[in-house]
Amino acid sequence: MARANDEIEAILQEYADLIAITGGDAFRARSYEKAARAIGGYPADVTTLDPKGLREIPHVGKSIADKIVEYLTSGRISAVEERRQSIPAGVRELIAIPMLGPKKALLLYEELGISSVDQLLDAVHGERLRDLRGFGEKTEANILHGIALMQKAGTRILLNAAMDAAERIVAELSGVEGCERCAYAGSLRRMRETIGDIDVLVAADASAPFMDALAALPNTAEVIAHGAKKTSIRTTKGLQVDLRVLPPDSWGAGLQYFTGAKAHNIRTREIAVRQGLKLSEYGLFDAESGERIVSSTEEEIYERLGLPWIPPTLREDRGEIEAALRGELPVLVTEEDIRGDLHTHTDLTDGLAPLEEMVAAAAARGYSYYAVTDHAPDLAMQRMTKEKTLAQRERVRELDRKHKGMRLLHGTELNIGPEGDVDWPDDFLAGFDICLASIHSHFNQSRDALTRRLVRACENPYISVIGHPTTRRIGKRPPVDADFDAVFAACARTGTALEINAHPERLDLGDEDILRAKRHGVRFAIDSDAHSTTHLPYMRYGVATAQRGWLSKDDVVNTWPLTKLRRFLRPSV
Ligand code: DGT
Ligand code: CA
Ligand code: CA
Ligand code: ZN
């Protein structure tokens, strides 16, 4: 994946924020923001582009192209450094609080001299913010929520960022001479939604070459501990990586131990103890004689404990041991089972790529169907109209004829309004192949109002999928406060699927909610919500989340053949 693009997206976004808080031109800030998003979603790796190529990226003109070149050659942008110097460090700490925003952060500093999270908490509790213009009880509640989210997230990072880093490290270490096996373990192998640190394992006779190779990687900023069994480093992005080198014949035991979760390991060790065995990262041993029984593969270890091999995404001690003992582990949905994507955007609304490019990228993924679901008019900033959507439908139908192996569905992502109403009347909705509906605003309604709103959307016969149902953004925005058991029951009753939005910042529904919804008999749609061709591969994170929610292929409507899917989308037809 285009990693440099992400770095440039981040630094230009920061620049836009800095312009905004230092009282710069709002139009200028906005143009940097647009360029940042366009670069993040641009399919070509920016490091392969010359200045002319860079200016072909939407919203990138000469001045931004120059800044990108400066960053790629020197690792810094002097204009950004200057702006950074001009704001106090304490304000930067405040800006990091989700839901506060740069403007308010600066106001707090200038009016009240607040320059740390602790001082801000004191001020909220002392009710000292209420006199400030633009601040009220609601802002205070938001600030407290934002701080709580930030503290809960701690220094954990999103799954995809950890995955990108881990895959690069595994690829590097696999090329070192003497490497027999190399893999990532820990929470990353279990595909948790956030990752504390990356655990990498190598099987080899000599450990030193691997420890040295990790320390020498270009993205290694600091070596925290350097030993014969374990080396820990911190990457330039502040992410910790633990590398352990195991004797080759301990590979399975080490992989099982360091995959965790700890609670799962406690259960497997208990099972061992009851059988007069001892399980460690080196193998499964006879407790009395100390003789090693098995250690080279995970399968052997689970088998010797009387268990089938348990997929890492289930290893959380959430009933997988009991299910395994009963022989009732689910057959989990896999990425190969996915036949198509049901929630995607184009540049007709807020997507970055034209229809043709999105469709070509979907076809390259081998999908047998693909839905185009741009936003509807109630998100006013998207400027959607009936005319535009009908014109898009014609283009979709035409492309559909050209793509032999892949059927195109023309759909829309409706906006669920404050009362549960959506953008268009039924007769117009009837013209779409698929209607999703999602909440995009009014997140702070009462629990009753939010529940009614979601249930009403489920009851609309034309709506067959609820998009990103809780609207959370991991580490940034909490889930809406609705009675989700009531929503899940409504979905089951009305035959409405719940989305598992695969965007790594959303993963919405998350694993625990999926487990609950499944008990109500709900079906699911795993969607990328792609706004760019580079987002289509996020599907893997949605599938992993579905696995963590114990889903099988049948639970997921976009593994179904198209005829069966169409009956689900339009039961009356
Ligand atoms: P993270 O890094 O917070 O996202 O979560 P994990 O699960 O990767 O945790 P981490 O990195 O502390 O340890 C990796 C795995 O190693 C963990 O899932 C289980 C295993 N492990 C580490 N320390 C212990 C321990 O003291 N006891 C047991 N049973 N297992 C451990
Ligand atoms: Ca870890
Ligand atoms: Ca670790
Ligand atoms: Zn969307």
Automatic annotation (TrEMBL):
<dbReference type="InterPro" id="IPR043519">
    <property type="entry name" value="NT_sf"/>
</dbReference>
<dbReference type="GO" id="GO:0140078">
    <property type="term" value="F:class I DNA-(apurinic or apyrimidinic site) endonuclease activity"/>
</dbReference>
<dbReference type="InterPro" id="IPR037160">
    <property type="entry name" value="DNA_Pol_thumb_sf"/>
</dbReference>
<dbReference type="GO" id="GO:0004527">
    <property type="term" value="F:exonuclease activity"/>
</dbReference>
<dbReference type="InterPro" id="IPR022311">
    <property type="entry name" value="PolX-like"/>
</dbReference>
<keyword id="KW-0227">DNA damage</keyword>
<keyword id="KW-0234">DNA repair</keyword>
<dbReference type="GO" id="GO:0008270">
    <property type="term" value="F:zinc ion binding"/>
</dbReference>
<keyword id="KW-0548">Nucleotidyltransferase</keyword>
<dbReference type="InterPro" id="IPR002008">
    <property type="entry name" value="DNA_pol_X_beta-like"/>
</dbReference>
<keyword id="KW-0488">Methylation</keyword>
<keyword id="KW-0808">Transferase</keyword>
<dbReference type="GO" id="GO:0003887">
    <property type="term" value="F:DNA-directed DNA polymerase activity"/>
</dbReference>
<protein>
    <recommendedName>
        <fullName>DNA polymerase beta</fullName>
        <ecNumber>2.7.7.7</ecNumber>
        <ecNumber>4.2.99.18</ecNumber>
    </recommendedName>
</protein>
<dbReference type="GO" id="GO:0005829">
    <property type="term" value="C:cytosol"/>
</dbReference>
<dbReference type="InterPro" id="IPR002054">
    <property type="entry name" value="DNA-dir_DNA_pol_X"/>
</dbReference>
<feature type="domain" description="Helix-hairpin-helix DNA-binding motif class 1">
    <location>
        <begin position="92"/>
        <end position="111"/>
    </location>
</feature>
<dbReference type="InterPro" id="IPR016195">
    <property type="entry name" value="Pol/histidinol_Pase-like"/>
</dbReference>
<keyword id="KW-0540">Nuclease</keyword>
<keyword id="KW-0832">Ubl conjugation</keyword>
<keyword id="KW-0239">DNA-directed DNA polymerase</keyword>
<feature type="domain" description="DNA-directed DNA polymerase X">
    <location>
        <begin position="3"/>
        <end position="316"/>
    </location>
</feature>
<feature type="domain" description="Helix-hairpin-helix DNA-binding motif class 1">
    <location>
        <begin position="52"/>
        <end position="71"/>
    </location>
</feature>
<keyword id="KW-0235">DNA replication</keyword>
<dbReference type="InterPro" id="IPR010996">
    <property type="entry name" value="HHH_MUS81"/>
</dbReference>
<dbReference type="InterPro" id="IPR003141">
    <property type="entry name" value="Pol/His_phosphatase_N"/>
</dbReference>
<keyword id="KW-0378">Hydrolase</keyword>
<dbReference type="Pfam" id="PF02811">
    <property type="entry name" value="PHP"/>
</dbReference>
<dbReference type="Pfam" id="PF14520">
    <property type="entry name" value="HHH_5"/>
</dbReference>
<dbReference type="GO" id="GO:0003677">
    <property type="term" value="F:DNA binding"/>
</dbReference>
<dbReference type="InterPro" id="IPR029398">
    <property type="entry name" value="PolB_thumb"/>
</dbReference>
<keyword id="KW-0269">Exonuclease</keyword>
<dbReference type="Pfam" id="PF14716">
    <property type="entry name" value="HHH_8"/>
</dbReference>
<feature type="domain" description="Polymerase/histidinol phosphatase N-terminal">
    <location>
        <begin position="340"/>
        <end position="418"/>
    </location>
</feature>
<dbReference type="Pfam" id="PF14791">
    <property type="entry name" value="DNA_pol_B_thumb"/>
</dbReference>
<dbReference type="InterPro" id="IPR003583">
    <property type="entry name" value="Hlx-hairpin-Hlx_DNA-bd_motif"/>
</dbReference>
<dbReference type="InterPro" id="IPR047967">
    <property type="entry name" value="PolX_PHP"/>
</dbReference>
<dbReference type="GO" id="GO:0042578">
    <property type="term" value="F:phosphoric ester hydrolase activity"/>
</dbReference>
<feature type="domain" description="Helix-hairpin-helix DNA-binding motif class 1">
    <location>
        <begin position="127"/>
        <end position="146"/>
    </location>
</feature>
<keyword id="KW-0237">DNA synthesis</keyword>
<comment type="function">
    <text>Repair polymerase that plays a key role in base-excision repair. During this process, the damaged base is excised by specific DNA glycosylases, the DNA backbone is nicked at the abasic site by an apurinic/apyrimidic (AP) endonuclease, and POLB removes 5'-deoxyribose-phosphate from the preincised AP site acting as a 5'-deoxyribose-phosphate lyase (5'-dRP lyase); through its DNA polymerase activity, it adds one nucleotide to the 3' end of the arising single-nucleotide gap.</text>
</comment>
<dbReference type="GO" id="GO:0006281">
    <property type="term" value="P:DNA repair"/>
</dbReference>
